[in-house]
Amino acid sequence: MLLDEAPAKLIHDTVLSFNIHGDKNALGRINDSLSELQQARDRRLRDAEHALKKLSRQLSTLENHHAETLSSHSSADHASQILALDTQKFRVAKAATDLEIEGERLEQELETLKMRLSELEDQGVEGGEGERGRRELEDETLLRLKIYRSLGIDLESNDAGSYTKAVIRSNQKGDVHVVNIDPKFSRHFYANYFWRAM
Questions:
Q1: Is the pTM here over 0.70, yes or no?
Q2: Cα(12)–Cα(7) distance, rounded to whole angstroms?
Q3: SS3 category, 158
Q4: What is the pLDDT of residues 152-182, one digit of tens each?
Q5: N or C, which terminus of the chain has less Cβ within 10 Å?
Q6: Please, are residues 191 and 181 in contact by the beta-carbon 8 Å criterion?
Q7: Using an 8 Å Cβ cutoff, are 164 and 158 in contact?
Q8: Is-contact 175 159, C-beta < 8 A?
Q9: Contact (Cβ atoms closer than 8 angstroms) between residue 62 and residue 137
């Protein structure tokens, strides 16, 4: 009978009936794979912790820099600087415009003086008897121009000698007006306009 045999022999025979070497080898390989996987996960975890610490330090540095920038920046000072720069820009623009107008006036005056010099050179040292009346008329015109300039009014003439433009400077108001003179309006109209502009 089967039960008459010794239990040790039965167990030994039973163990031999099962082929467990392949399973043991598979379990060993699984254990090795699990160990390698655990080591890889530990390495990745350490790398992630290292990167997190580095990013935390960078964040702290940037926060400190941001706080310093905010503390050193004043919106009121910035606004006052912008206002001062705008004011300076407008002053420079106005000065440039004034200089341009003055340059045009001086160019016109230079041309007039060149023409006068040419006329005087043509007359010679003594001049002519018929030229005296014209000289007196020109002296009268120059005197009027000087009076206008003393009032802040500069007149500009065209090639024909007619005055077609007036530049009126008002020192009290700080304004400059440029007026085109049209013959269809009377002298009385322009006189009133000039006085109001001054």
A1: no
A2: 8
A3: coil
A4: 777 777 777 677 777 777 767 777 777 777 7
A5: N
A6: no
A7: yes
A8: no
A9: no
